[in-house]
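name: query_chain
kind: protein
chains: 1
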Amino acid sequence: MKYFSSQIWSGLNAIDPQARESAFERADRARDQYYAYLDSIRPKLSARKWRTILQCHGLHDCVIESISVSYRSRGRRTVADVRFVMENRTVLFQDVTRFSFQIDNQTAFPCGSYCWDYCEFELLDTGRMTISILGDVTNQIDLEFESIECGKRPKD
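structure:
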Protein backbone atom coordinates (compact mmCIF):
# COMPACT_ATOMS: atom_id res chain seq x y z
CA MET A 1 0.00 0.00 0.00
CA LYS A 2 1.53 3.24 -1.14
CA TYR A 3 -0.65 5.68 0.81
CA PHE A 4 -2.43 3.75 3.53
CA SER A 5 0.34 1.59 4.93
CA SER A 6 0.03 -1.27 7.37
CA GLN A 7 1.97 0.90 9.86
CA ILE A 8 -0.83 3.49 9.77
CA TRP A 9 -3.43 0.74 10.17
CA SER A 10 -1.52 -0.69 13.10
CA GLY A 11 -1.29 2.76 14.67
CA LEU A 12 -5.03 3.34 14.33
CA ASN A 13 -5.51 0.34 16.59
CA ALA A 14 -2.78 1.28 19.08
CA ILE A 15 -3.55 1.22 22.79
CA ASP A 16 -1.50 4.35 23.47
CA PRO A 17 -3.74 7.42 22.87
CA GLN A 18 -0.89 9.59 21.53
CA ALA A 19 0.21 6.91 19.05
CA ARG A 20 -3.40 6.46 17.96
CA GLU A 21 -3.91 10.23 17.50
CA SER A 22 -0.70 10.46 15.47
CA ALA A 23 -1.83 7.58 13.27
CA PHE A 24 -5.20 9.27 12.65
CA GLU A 25 -3.37 12.42 11.55
CA ARG A 26 -1.16 10.37 9.19
CA ALA A 27 -4.22 8.54 7.88
CA ASP A 28 -5.96 11.86 7.14
CA ARG A 29 -2.90 13.14 5.26
CA ALA A 30 -2.59 9.84 3.36
CA ARG A 31 -6.27 9.94 2.39
CA ASP A 32 -5.90 13.51 1.11
CA GLN A 33 -2.78 12.56 -0.89
CA TYR A 34 -4.51 9.51 -2.34
CA TYR A 35 -7.58 11.41 -3.49
CA ALA A 36 -5.32 14.10 -4.98
CA TYR A 37 -3.58 11.31 -6.90
CA LEU A 38 -6.93 9.97 -8.15
CA ASP A 39 -7.85 13.47 -9.34
CA SER A 40 -4.51 13.70 -11.18
CA ILE A 41 -5.08 10.47 -13.17
CA ARG A 42 -8.71 11.16 -14.00
CA PRO A 43 -7.91 12.91 -17.35
CA LYS A 44 -5.95 9.81 -18.45
CA LEU A 45 -8.93 7.48 -18.02
CA SER A 46 -12.03 7.07 -20.14
CA ALA A 47 -15.31 8.08 -18.54
CA ARG A 48 -16.30 4.39 -18.38
CA LYS A 49 -13.09 3.34 -16.60
CA TRP A 50 -13.45 6.25 -14.19
CA ARG A 51 -17.07 5.32 -13.32
CA THR A 52 -16.02 1.71 -12.81
CA ILE A 53 -13.21 2.70 -10.46
CA LEU A 54 -15.60 4.84 -8.44
CA GLN A 55 -18.14 2.00 -8.27
CA CYS A 56 -15.50 -0.52 -7.26
CA HIS A 57 -14.01 1.77 -4.68
CA GLY A 58 -16.66 0.19 -2.51
CA LEU A 59 -14.01 -2.44 -1.80
CA HIS A 60 -13.23 -0.07 1.07
CA ASP A 61 -15.11 -1.33 4.14
CA CYS A 62 -16.64 -4.32 2.39
CA VAL A 63 -17.13 -7.96 3.21
CA ILE A 64 -15.70 -10.20 0.50
CA GLU A 65 -17.45 -13.56 0.61
CA SER A 66 -15.28 -15.38 -1.91
CA ILE A 67 -12.55 -14.90 -4.49
CA SER A 68 -12.20 -17.06 -7.58
CA VAL A 69 -9.34 -17.11 -10.06
CA SER A 70 -9.63 -18.51 -13.58
CA TYR A 71 -6.70 -18.79 -15.98
CA ARG A 72 -6.60 -18.45 -19.78
CA SER A 73 -4.04 -18.03 -22.53
CA ARG A 74 -3.49 -14.66 -24.12
CA GLY A 75 -0.97 -15.01 -26.89
CA ARG A 76 2.18 -16.49 -25.40
CA ARG A 77 1.31 -15.74 -21.83
CA THR A 78 -1.16 -16.94 -19.25
CA VAL A 79 -3.43 -14.36 -17.64
CA ALA A 80 -6.07 -14.64 -14.96
CA ASP A 81 -9.50 -13.23 -14.28
CA VAL A 82 -10.07 -12.62 -10.57
CA ARG A 83 -13.66 -12.31 -9.32
CA PHE A 84 -14.66 -11.00 -5.89
CA VAL A 85 -18.17 -11.84 -4.64
CA MET A 86 -19.69 -9.50 -2.09
CA GLU A 87 -23.10 -9.10 -0.52
CA ASN A 88 -24.83 -7.41 -3.45
CA ARG A 89 -22.33 -7.29 -6.31
CA THR A 90 -19.37 -8.90 -7.99
CA VAL A 91 -16.14 -7.24 -9.08
CA LEU A 92 -14.20 -8.83 -11.94
CA PHE A 93 -10.57 -7.91 -12.62
CA GLN A 94 -9.74 -9.01 -16.17
CA ASP A 95 -6.40 -9.82 -17.80
CA VAL A 96 -4.57 -10.03 -14.48
CA THR A 97 -0.87 -10.59 -15.10
CA ARG A 98 0.44 -10.30 -11.55
CA PHE A 99 -1.26 -10.96 -8.24
CA SER A 100 -0.51 -11.95 -4.68
CA PHE A 101 -2.75 -12.99 -1.83
CA GLN A 102 -1.37 -12.61 1.68
CA ILE A 103 -4.12 -13.98 3.88
CA ASP A 104 -3.20 -15.46 7.25
CA ASN A 105 -4.34 -18.93 8.22
CA GLN A 106 -6.61 -17.59 10.97
CA THR A 107 -9.04 -16.26 8.38
CA ALA A 108 -12.16 -18.32 7.69
CA PHE A 109 -11.76 -17.63 3.98
CA PRO A 110 -12.96 -18.49 1.36
CA CYS A 111 -15.47 -20.66 3.23
CA GLY A 112 -16.58 -17.73 5.38
CA SER A 113 -16.21 -14.04 4.70
CA TYR A 114 -13.61 -11.39 5.34
CA CYS A 115 -13.86 -7.64 5.84
CA TRP A 116 -11.41 -5.47 3.90
CA ASP A 117 -10.77 -2.01 5.18
CA TYR A 118 -8.93 -0.04 2.52
CA CYS A 119 -8.05 -0.21 -1.16
CA GLU A 120 -5.85 1.85 -3.49
CA PHE A 121 -5.87 2.08 -7.29
CA GLU A 122 -2.81 3.10 -9.29
CA LEU A 123 -2.48 3.75 -13.02
CA LEU A 124 0.81 2.43 -14.43
CA ASP A 125 2.78 4.05 -17.26
CA THR A 126 1.84 1.04 -19.40
CA GLY A 127 -1.86 1.89 -19.13
CA ARG A 128 -2.49 -1.12 -16.91
CA MET A 129 -3.76 -0.64 -13.37
CA THR A 130 -2.98 -2.04 -9.97
CA ILE A 131 -5.12 -2.35 -6.89
CA SER A 132 -3.98 -3.11 -3.36
CA ILE A 133 -6.56 -4.17 -0.80
CA LEU A 134 -5.60 -4.11 2.86
CA GLY A 135 -7.52 -6.16 5.41
CA ASP A 136 -5.28 -5.56 8.39
CA VAL A 137 -1.56 -5.56 9.03
CA THR A 138 -1.14 -9.16 7.80
CA ASN A 139 -3.84 -9.55 5.12
CA GLN A 140 -3.40 -7.94 1.72
CA ILE A 141 -4.27 -8.60 -1.94
CA ASP A 142 -2.36 -7.01 -4.84
CA LEU A 143 -3.48 -7.24 -8.49
CA GLU A 144 -2.20 -5.82 -11.77
CA PHE A 145 -4.98 -5.83 -14.35
CA GLU A 146 -6.18 -4.48 -17.69
CA SER A 147 -9.84 -3.80 -16.99
CA ILE A 148 -12.42 -4.07 -14.26
CA GLU A 149 -16.14 -4.72 -14.25
CA CYS A 150 -18.67 -4.28 -11.45
CA GLY A 151 -21.92 -6.16 -11.68
CA LYS A 152 -24.83 -7.36 -9.64
CA ARG A 153 -24.27 -10.50 -7.65
CA PRO A 154 -25.64 -13.54 -9.47
CA LYS A 155 -28.76 -14.99 -7.85
CA ASP A 156 -28.28 -18.32 -6.12
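note: The first strand starts at residue 62 and ends at 74.
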